[in-house]
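User: Fold this; tokens only.

Assistant: Input:
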Amino acid sequence: HQGHEATEKMSKEMFSMIDTNRDGKVTMEEYTKEKNDKFTRYDKDKDGALTFEEHKQMAAEIHDKAERKAS
């Protein structure tokens, strides 16, 4: 049950970050912007593509952030 509560909390936080106009819905524009911003942040060499190393860094940071929020 505790895992479900952590997932619920994380989902609400993520939704809130993406729902930039706070209307209780995430549009394709909001979703795409959030993903594009994340991609740009991890594309360290700014070549318009993620290398495996850049992707691995992104995945590690997302995992670490999720673990911190769950505990």
